[in-house]
């Protein structure tokens, strides 16, 4: 008998029905989609089989995939699986097998399956080894490179670098010395951990050596940021940024702004249990944003902060622009930040007001620097300022708090120095440059925190 099945997806109950009707010890797996009506009329000349097969009722099941464990010698079903896709199902040729014969067939198929899996694993291992070897040979053709490994094509050793952190550099130095090659963050890299070599590189930066950064960082921070430009453009931008932190601006604008912000921000921490790592990052970003956007920083900080955190993660990822990657999220976050800053610039130009913050100064660089920055250049410099100050300030603050907590005597000495400065001033008087210069022990604590961070790096 032949029953034409449209594309199906059988259920367990349907498989039990077929098993009862056909008297075949077959195991069928299936799932459902849409109703299926099966015509039970006989389409075969096999009267003996037809006499034993009653009509099938209309079953609410759809198009099916059936898996048979065992092989029917008469009908020739494929071992392990048989896909019903508009394929006539020959029920008349099915016959029963003894349990021992069925178990023997199952065992033989299990052995075959294990052999296939083992072969697949061996092929994958061999392919991986050949791929790694090809990547090493490809870079070894370039003469003059130090020893080292390049990892996988495209990805390199980025996964190990991000997972192991400082231990990755220590392990590579133990294997290859203080000067070795690698492939990190999508870039072929030569790593130097030798102080003399590093000093030579920094001293000769403008003599044949050009500073470079990972491609993901250049893409997300912008093509106009100071780290990506060279020559006269770099000179003018450097002058504009240095003018933002001149002694006069620090004394009259930056220091009072930072003092007022930190007092207000820290007062919100009273009587709370806080995550110091998260809070120091928020404090560092909001403080920088206050210096850049002034009073308008409060209105944009809510939308700005989560996008900036995504941007930072994107700069430390592989430059693979695929949905779900940190690079894609970082690039999308940059677009959101650019939109926020561009709206702020347009709003300020329409108001024709004067602003003493960093953004206002960058918008009027032509008056002092004889070089007018475009809107794109202004936005990229703002993002660069926020990015460069965010991680260093937040990490230093967090480490200082940790080690002050671990060393109560140092904390007590620090408190005494600050209380002595406060005793000379009124309660609401801000700190000034003379106060900062008198904080010798505070400066030592800050430098010790910086030294620990850079030592770990």
From TrEMBL:
The entry assigns this protein to a family as follows: Belongs to the cytochrome P450 family.
Task: Write the protein's name.
Answer: Cytochrome P450
| The keyword Metal-binding is assigned to this record | yes
- What are this entry's molecular-function GO terms? heme binding; iron ion binding; monooxygenase activity; oxidoreductase activity, acting on paired donors, with incorporation or reduction of molecular oxygen
Q: Which residues form the signal peptide?
A: 1-15
Alphabetized UniProt keyword annotations: Iron, Membrane, Metal-binding, Signal, Transmembrane, Transmembrane helix
* GO biological-process terms attached to the record: brassinosteroid biosynthetic process; brassinosteroid homeostasis; sterol metabolic process
Transmembrane segments annotated in the record for this chain: 109-132
InterPro entries, alphabetized: Cyt_P450, Cyt_P450_sf
**Could you tell me which species this protein originates from?**
Linum tenue
Q: Does the keyword Transcription apply?
A: no
């Amino acid at each position: 008998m032949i029953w034409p099945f449209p594309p199906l997806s059988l259920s367990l109950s349907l498989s039990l029905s077929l098993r009862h009707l056909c008297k075949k010890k077959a195991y069928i797996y299936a799932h459902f989609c849409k109703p299926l009506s099966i015509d039970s009329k006989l389409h075969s000349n096999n009267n003996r089989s037809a006499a034993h097969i009653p009509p099938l009722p209309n079953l609410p099941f759809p198009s099916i995939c059936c898996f048979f464990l065992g092989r029917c010698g008469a009908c020739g079903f494929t071992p392990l699986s048989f896909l019903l896709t508009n394929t006539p199902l020959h029920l008349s040729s099915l016959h029963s097998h003894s349990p021992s014969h069925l178990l023997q067939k199952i065992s033989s198929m299990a052995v075959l399956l294990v052999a296939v899996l083992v072969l697949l694993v061996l092929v994958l291992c061999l392919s991986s080894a050949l791929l790694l070897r090809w990547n090493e040979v490809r870079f070894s053709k370039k003469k003059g490179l130090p020893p080292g490994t390049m990892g996988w094509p495209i990805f390199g050793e980025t996964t190990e670098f991000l997972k192991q952190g400082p231990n990755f550099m220590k392990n590579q130095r133990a294997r290859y010395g203080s000067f070795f090659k690698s492939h990190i963050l999508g870039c072929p890299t030569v790593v130097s951990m030798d102080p003399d070599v590093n000093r030579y590189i920094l001293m000769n930066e403008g003599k044949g050596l050009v500073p470079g950064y990972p491609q993901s960082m250049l893409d997300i921070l912008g093509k106009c940021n100071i780290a990506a430009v060279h020559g006269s453009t770099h000179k003018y931008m450097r002058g504009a940024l240095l003018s933002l932190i001149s002694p006069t601006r620090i004394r009259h604008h930056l220091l009072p702004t930072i003092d007022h912000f930190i007092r207000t921000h820290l007062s919100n921490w009273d009587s709370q249990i806080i995550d110091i790592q998260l809070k120091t990052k928020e404090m560092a970003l909001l403080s920088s944003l206050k210096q850049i956007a002034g009073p308008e920083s409060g209105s944009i900080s809510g939308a700005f902060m989560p996008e900036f955190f995504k941007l930072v993660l994107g700069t430390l990822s592989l430059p693979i622009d695929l949905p779900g990657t940190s690079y894609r999220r970082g690039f999308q976050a940059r677009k959101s930040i650019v939109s926020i800053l561009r709206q702020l610039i347009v709003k300020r130009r329409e108001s024709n007001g004067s602003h003493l913050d960093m953004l206002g100064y960058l918008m009027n660089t032509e008056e002092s620097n004889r070089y007018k920055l475009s809107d794109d250049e202004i936005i990229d410099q703002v993002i660069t300022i926020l990015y460069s100050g965010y991680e260093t300030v937040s990490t230093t603050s967090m480490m200082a708090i940790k080690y002050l907590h671990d060393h109560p005597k140092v904390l007590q000495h620090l408190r005494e120095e600050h209380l002595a400065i406060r005793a000379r001033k009124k309660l609401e008087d801000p700190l000034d440059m003379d106060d900062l210069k008198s904080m010798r022990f505070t400066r030592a604590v800050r430098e010790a925190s910086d030294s620990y961070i850079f030592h770990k790096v």
